[in-house]
Specification:
Elements lengths: L3 E4 L9 H16 L3 E6 L9 H14 L5 E5 L4 H13 L3 E4 L3 H13 L15 H9 L5 E4 L6 E6 L3 E6 L7 E6 L5 E4 L1 H11 L4 E5 L3 H14 L5 E5 L2 E2 L15 H6 L4 H10 L13 H7 L10 E2 L2 H13 L3 H14 L8 H11 L8 H10 L7 H8 L4 H12 L6 H14 L4 H13 L7 H10 L3 H9 L3
Parallel strand pairs: 1-2, 2-3, 10-11, 12-13
Antiparallel strand pairs: 4-5, 5-8, 6-7, 8-9
The structure holds glutamic acid (GLU).
The site of glutamic acid has 7 residues, from loops.
C-alpha cells in the first residue's frame, strides 16, 4: 500500500504556523514511507475564502520548501462529486432535507440553554413526509441537507498518536448539515465534514494527519465513510501549539503566520527544524536536523500527546545556529532584501558584502539583526550616540584622530596586519595604551562605543573610501 497523505488548508487566512507544522508532519510521514503528499485547498466557505490567502499559503509552503507531489486541488472545482455523493445518501435515506428556519434553530438553542443542556439539533425534520416537505418548500423555506447520525453509539478508532479514541455519537450535536441547497433547489456547496471525506476517498488518502482540534470531526467523518461504504483511513491527531500560558497560540503571542516569521528574520531551514520539535522528539536526541534527516526516522510514536509549547528562546537559538553556520554567499543573499527594506543601498562589490557578512554572522540571531549591526557600514551620514559624542569631544582625543587620519592616508592598501600595526605605532608614539586609540577610532567610524570587530570595520570602511572622512568628521565634533 502506498502511503498517501494530504494537507487541506482553508484559504481564510495567511498560512498559519499550525497548518505549516501539520504540512511538515505530513511531508515527513510521506517521505519516510516513500509515499505521496497532496495539497488540497478547501475553499468552499465562499464568504471567508480569498485568493490572496491561497497565494499566501502556496508561497509559504514554497518558502519552507514543503513540496507536494500533486495538487493544489480546489474543492470549488469538485462540486459535481459532492453533489453526486449527497444524492447517494439521500437515496438511501442516510441524509435528508431539513427545512428548519434560523429562528426555529435559535429557539431550540435557547430552550436547551435554559435547561442547561448542550446545544444540539434535535433531528426534528429527520422523518418529514413528502407532503410536509412540499408545504415547507411552498412556504418559501430553503432547506439544507443533513446527515443522519445514528445515536447513541460508542465509536472507537485507533489514533496513531493518541491510541484508542472513543466518542459517543450522542455528543456530536445531532444530525449534521453536510450541504446547502441553492435557490433552484439543487444541492450546492458542501460543508467541511462532508467534502473532506469525499475528497479523502477520491484522493485515496491512507493517513489523515491533522491538528487535535479536529478529533470531534473525525467521529463525524468516520460515520460518513461508513455510510458511503468506503475504507476508513488511519488518523493521527497532532498536539496543539500552545503559548507560554498553556493556551492555544494566537496573534497576541507575537506571530502566528509563517509570513510574519519570515519578516522577523527567521530562515526556513531553522523554522522547519523548530516546527519539527513542536510535537516530535528525535530518538537520537538531536535538536538540529534537516527535514530529510528527520524523515529517515519519523514515526508517530515519537509525537507527543500533550500540547506543544511555543518557545521563542528555542526558536531564536535554532535560528542563530543556522545563521552562524550558513555559507556566507547564501547568507548574503538572504540579508540583501532586509538591507534594501531598511533603505540601505547594498550594491557594493560582492567581496565587500561577503566580508561584511562574515563580520556580523556570528552575532546574528535573526536576519533583521543585520540591519542595525551593519547600518554604520552602509550609510553616508553617520549618527552618533551620546556616549560616542562624549568621547569624541574630549580634547585629548583630537591628536589621536589626527594621527589616525594621517596614518591611514599614508597607508594606501590596508590589510588586517597593517591596520593593527598602524594602531600600535600610533599608541607608541603618543605614549598611550592600544585601547586608548581603539575607543575613539570605534566612535569615529561607527558612531557608537560598541560594535563588531574594529579592525574589520576599519577595513570595510577604508574599502568604501570613507574611513578617513569619518575620522575627519569626528574631529569637527566639539
Ligand atoms: N480545511 C481544514 C482546516 O484547515 C482541514 C482539516 C483536515 O485536515 O481535515 O482545518
Amino acid at each position: 500500500m502506498t502511503v498517501r497523505v494530504r494537507i487541506a488548508p482553508s484559504p481564510t487566512g495567511n498560512l498559519h504556523i499550525g497548518t505549516a507544522r501539520t504540512a511538515l508532519f505530513n511531508w515527513l510521514y510521506a517521505k519516510h514511507n516513500h509515499g505521496e503528499f497532496i495539497l488540497r485547498i478547501e475553499d468552499t466557505d465562499q464568504e471567508r475564502s480569498q485568493d490572496q490567502y491561497t497565494q499566501n499559503i502556496l508561497e509559504g509552503l514554497k518558502w519552507l520548501g514543503i513540496d507536494y507531489d500533486s495538487g493544489p486541488f480546489f474543492q470549488t472545482q469538485r462540486l459535481e462529486q459532492y453533489r453526486a455523493a449527497v444524492h447517494l445518501l439521500l437515496d438511501q435515506g442516510l441524509a435528508y432535507y431539513c427545512y428548519c428556519s434560523e429562528a426555529e434553530l435559535e429557539q431550540m438553542r435557547e430552550e436547551q440553554k435554559a435547561k442547561k443542556q448542550a446545544p444540539r439539533y434535535d433531528n426534528r425534520h429527520r422523518h418529514l413526509t413528502k407532503q410536509q416537505r412540499t408545504e415547507f418548500a411552498n412556504a418559501g423555506r430553503k432547506p439544507v441537507i443533513r446527515f443522519v447520525i445514528e445515536e447513541p453509539r460508542e465509536l472507537t478508532w485507533l489514533d496513531l498518536v493518541r491510541g484508542d479514541v472513543t466518542w459517543n455519537t450522542r455528543d456530536l450535536g445531532g444530525d449534521i448539515v453536510i450541504a446547502r441547497v441553492d435557490d433552484q433547489g439543487q444541492v450546492s456547496l458542501p460543508l467541511y465534514n462532508f467534502a473532506v471525506v469525499i475528497d479523502d476517498i477520491a484522493m485515496e488518502i491512507t493517513h489523515v494527519i491533522r491538528g487535535e482540534d479536529h478529533i470531534a470531526n473525525t467521529a463525524k467523518q468516520i460515520l460518513i465513510y461508513e455510510a458511503l461504504g468506503a475504507e476508513i483511513p488511519k488518523f493521527s491527531h497532532l498536539p496543539l501549539i500552545l503559548n507560554a500560558q498553556g493556551a492555544k497560540i494566537s496573534k497576541r503571542d507575537g506571530a502566528t503566520s509563517v509570513f510574519e516569521f519570515q519578516q522577523m528574520g527567521y530562515v526556513p531551514e531553522a523554522f522547519n527544524n523548530y516546527m519539527v520539535l513542536l510535537g516530535w522528539s528525535d530518538p537520537n536526541g538531536r535538536e538540529i536536523f534537516s527535514p530529510s534527516e528527520v524523515a529517515e526516522v519519523f514515526e508517530f510514536e515519537r509525537v507527543n500527546k500533550s500540547g506543544a509549547r511555543f518557545d521563542w528562546d528555542k526558536l531564536n537559538w535554532i535560528n542563530s545556529q543556522y545563521l552562524h553556520n550558513m555559507d556566507p554567499e547564501i547568507l548574503c543573499d538572504r540579508l540583501i532584501p532586509f538591507w534594501q527594506a531598511a533603505g540601505f543601498n547594498p550594491n557594493f562589490e560582492r567581496n565587500w558584502l561577503i566580508d561584511l557578512v562574515k563580520l556580523i554572522a556570528p552575532s546574528l540571531t535573526v536576519l533583521t539583526d543585520a540591519v542595525d549591526m551593519a547600518r554604520y557600514l552602509f550609510i553616508d551620514n553617520l549618527e552618533y550616540t551620546e556616549e560616542a559624542i562624549a568621547i569624541l569631544k574630549a580634547e585629548s582625543v583630537k591628536p589621536i584622530l589626527i594621527a589616525l587620519a594621517q596614518a591611514l592616508k599614508d597607508t594606501p592598501t590596508l590589510t588586517p596586519d597593517s591596520a593593527s600595526s598602524l594602531i600600535q605605532s600610533i599608541a607608541k608614539s603618543l605614549n598611550l595604551k592600544k585601547g586608548a586609540i581603539m575607543k575613539p577610532l570605534r566612535c569615529a567610524l561607527s558612531g557608537d562605543i560598541h560594535g563588531p570587530d574594529l579592525i574589520s570595520s576599519l577595513l570595510l570602511l577604508a574599502q568604501r573610501g570613507v574611513a578617513v572622512t569619518r575620522i575627519e568628521t569626528a574631529l569637527e565634533i566639539n
